[in-house]
Amino acid sequence: MAGLNLSAVSDDDDDNDQDDHPVLSAAAVAAAARSTLRPPSLQTLLEDMPDPAAVPHTSSSGGDSEEKSKSADKSSRSRKLKHDVIEAVNELIEDIDTCHEQIAEQAVEHIHHNEVILTLGSSRTVLEFLYAAKEKKRSFRVFVAEGAPRYQGHLLAKELVARGLQTTLITDSAVFAMISRVNMVIVGAHAVMANGGVIAPVGLNMVALAAQRHAVPFVVLAGSHKLCPLYPHNPEVLLNELRSPSELLDFGEFSDCMDFGSGSGSPLIHVVNPTFDYVPPKLVSLFITDTGGHNPSYMYRLIADYYSADDLVLQRKAAASN
Q1: For 6-64, what is each residue's pLDDT tens digit?
Q2: Domains defined along the chain, listed by start
Q3: How wide is the angle at C-alpha 13 spanned by C-alphas 7 and 16, nearest 5°?
Q4: Is 103 exposed, middle or buried (0-12, 13-18, 19+ CB in 10 A)?
Q5: Residue 41 has what pLDDT?
Q6: Which pLDDT does position 30 carry in this prediction?
Q7: Of 45, 206, 299, 317, which has the fewest Cβ atoms less than 10 A away?
């Protein structure tokens, strides 16, 4: 639910509609006093809803009409909250659909003539970014690391060639050998943490270390919807997950490595196939988002504009109550 606050930052109607509420909680008043520019958090919207248990029962003759009026007011606020949530979700969907074009518009500022760009795996954002530079008459070559074991780099290489870009496909193990010929590394991201660290496809930490060793800029492309308000050390953060071993080994070919003859069923060979890498912020040179370019040290400020701390506290309280 905290993610629903992403798209509310550009919604000017929310600030104006708050004046229509006759009752504001203490938390809402405090939040408004802290920052009049920040959009209302989800917790503020929920606390602004009237509590049925707090409504006093009156014994006057006009009690029925007063109860009906309060019930209608509650229903109106519920409908407004539902409308705000649906509008926020629609704006988030629109942001996700348009972020690739907004990031690609900045390509001409970062890619120049006769440069060599290195990337790994497949990313639509990277594809559109490189193609936009070509459309601006930039002449450059792209090295694509294949991204084993899923080999998503093969798909990206085909797309680049289909769009007329000079492309060289290399193995992941050849990155360090080729990095000295590279002018810039441009990659996508699965998520951007609050400290500026990146959760990215497996193999990118190796690329980032090679880029740092040869003083090659390491640039990460990420839409605003990939910003995460959590830190890597938070216990609820899962930095990795394991994929099926079948992507690495053919079970029929390696069946003799399985110790099924002893009856224990314990395999002699173990396969670890991680999905992601964690790239620390010290290895990242620049983030390019749909709002512009940012240093890793600035990402926590950018994330604070999209996620309210009140919503994070609300999430922790809900988890604690469970």
Answers
A1: 443 333 344 444 444 444 444 444 444 444 445 566 666 666 655 544 445 555 555 56
A2: 85-240+275-311 (3.40.50.10470)
A3: 130
A4: buried
A5: 67
A6: 43
A7: 317
Give the residue among 31, 66, 59 at the shortest CA–CA distance from 45.
31
Phi and psi, residue 242, nearest 5°: -100, 135
Tokens of 56: 């006093």
Residue pointed to by tokens 């390491």: 218
Is the CB of residue 155 less than 8 Å from the CB of residue 122? Answer: yes
pLDDT tens for 185-195 read 999 999 999 99
The residue to which tokens 């496809």 are assigned: 201
- Tokens read off for 25: 């909680």
Count Cβ atoms below 10 Å from residue 31 Cβ, excluding itself.
21
Q: pLDDT by residue (tens digit) across 133-151?
A: 999 999 999 999 999 999 9
pLDDT at 15: 41
Rg of the chain in Å (alpha carbons): 26
The amino acid occupying position 256 is: D
Give the residue carrying structure tokens 């870009």.
Answer: 165
Q: Are 118 and 187 in contact (CB under 8 A)?
A: no
Q: Which two tokens stand for residue 192?
A: 């951007």
DSSP assignments along 201-262, one per residue: ETTHHHHHHHHHHTT--EEEE--GGGB-SS-TTSTT-----B--GGGT--TTTTGGGEE-TT
Rounded-to-10 torsion of CA 40, 312, 8, 16:
0
Q: Which residue has the higher pLDDT, 164 or 41?
A: 164
